[in-house]
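Q: Predict the assembly, please.
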Amino acid sequence: MTDTTPSVPPPLTAGLDRLFPTLTSAQIARIAARGDARKVQRGEVLVEVGENPRFLVVIAGNIEIVRPARETEEVVAVCGPGQFTGEVNMLSGRRGFLRIRASTSGEVIAVERERLLALVQADSELSDILMRAFILRRVELIARGIGDAVLLGSSHSSGTLRIKEFLTRNGHPYSYLDLDRDADVQDLLDHFHIAVADIPVMICRGELVLRNPSNQQIADCLGFNEAIDQTQIRDLVIVGAGPAGLAAAVYGASEGLDVLVLESDSPGGQAGSSSKIENYLGFPTGISGQDLAGRAYTQAQKFSAQVMIAKDARRLACDRKPYAIEMDGGQRVPARTVIIATGALYRRLSLDNVAQFEGAGVYYGATFVESQLCCDEEVIVVGGGNSAGQAAVFLAQTSKCVHMLVRSEGLAASMSRYLIRRIEENPAINLRTCTEIVALEGSEHLECVQWRDKRTGKTETRNIRHIFVMTGAVPNTAWLGGCLSLDAKGFIKTGMDLSRDDLMTAHWPLTRSPHHLETSLPGVFAVGDVRSGNVKRVASAVGEGSIAVASIHQVLRE
Ligand SMILES: Cc1cc2nc3c(=O)[nH]c(=O)nc-3n(C[C@H](O)[C@H](O)[C@H](O)COP(=O)(O)OP(=O)(O)OC[C@H]3O[C@@H](n4cnc5c(N)ncnc54)[C@H](O)[C@@H]3O)c2cc1C
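A: Predicted assembly structure:
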């Protein structure tokens, strides 16, 4: 995300033929079969800001995509004959933030969203053209900060970082104004009667002013979940949109199941906080977790899976059929089958005042957003696993020096060989074994860190303002109550791991045994990091998410 003022983004120019391809007459004919042709008059508004998306192909004349602003409006793009409107919200069904208007009289074909999704699933040639244009347009909107959200924040505020991450990981375009750097911000503050103490503030859709909003308030204001019917009984409800949940969504929806995903934060899970995943099949040069998650999210939506964002599953109602998932706010989503893909939560440093610095010097992910906060500064990475190794190598590119702190005597037992080699060969990384952090100091932001060498007992204090904690994770299963059999560490037991005793205690009601990834409750499956015995990798999470869907079909037939 660029830091850009919201008023005058530059016009769309780069790669216009890929952003705005011209369809052939044969392609237009296939679209016309699913839509309605109609004449339009010059100046007629075809889709207003905030309306549900509608796909339009221009047959004659021109239509313009306009960004309304407070004082003036700006034409973002113009579509001529053979060109079409739409971007990623066409798949999600979210409200649009641009106005579409006929700039000359002419004719268009209008296609409703559901019919467009059916077309994209059936016609691979059109799917390629449309999906590529939708995704590139969204990327362009993000790069230019053209959206319906303006964030006013400060790089010293943890709330600002949280909101930036939430919008970025949801692929939502926004403009960012930094109080510490943008002199013009005061005007905006005055206009909306905002005091500096209210920061971070989000101006949503040009009107609503949200002071330090929660992720859920942001999702509500931007209409992330509006288009989703929460009362409908789904074939499959997936809890968690990390790699495992997204894989299950793609396979389930592409095989015709009616799929709803609930995600308490943003799509991507732990993988979304990885700077570069290099061991996932098919990406020889690596891919950032965010890119991987973004692609999977769009892919799931293409097949009509629906994803609710910032919706925490609080309880599994397992004493009734269909099952139901209770969310924060009290709503219940009924489900014939359930896949639990809630992954794991990062372990925190066990220091009393750590919460004070989370997001203001202590971070649990090392993506581009965090790396920008500590350019040319010394940083600490805590942990000896692959995620810590990746973070150290990534941060070493932009920071002055990375101190890598591990409690054990070396990395060999916990890290892949290729990462150990990169760490050893990188002069910017300083590996400190048998070392742990014992104190943090600072006021609004972390300022100073003390660590201790466990062998000598000697402590050292450094003026370091950034710590990346990568020390493993605990399963997200507390919300399940007593519904499922868990192992001693709280991971969900499935398939052959469920003993006769487990099944008796759970009152397993069927004559058949549980399927491979099925829990002690028939029709409820667990996949990915949350599952007992799972190999904690992106590939295994994706594999399990897709395998579970095969068993879901069998259960739905029972
Ligand atoms: C920094 C980092 C780097 C990594 N790098 C690699 C790598 O290079 N290669 C590799 O193979 N693996 C890597 N891993 C491990 C990999 O990311 C995980 O194994 C993988 O993400 C597990 O996927 P998952 O879907 O099972 O769970 P998660 O990724 O943990 O996703 C779970 C999702 O469920 C959501 N959720 C939790 N509770 C609820 C609830 N109650 N209601 C609704 N939603 C909920 C969470 O918000 C989250 O989005 C890395 C991990 C980290 C942290």
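The pocket of flavin-adenine dinucleotide is lined by residues 239-245, 262-265, 269-271, 273-274, 277, 279, 312-313, 341-344, 365, 386-387, 390, 470, 476, 479, 528-530, 536-539, 541 (CB under 6 Å). The first strand starts at residue 36 and ends at 40.
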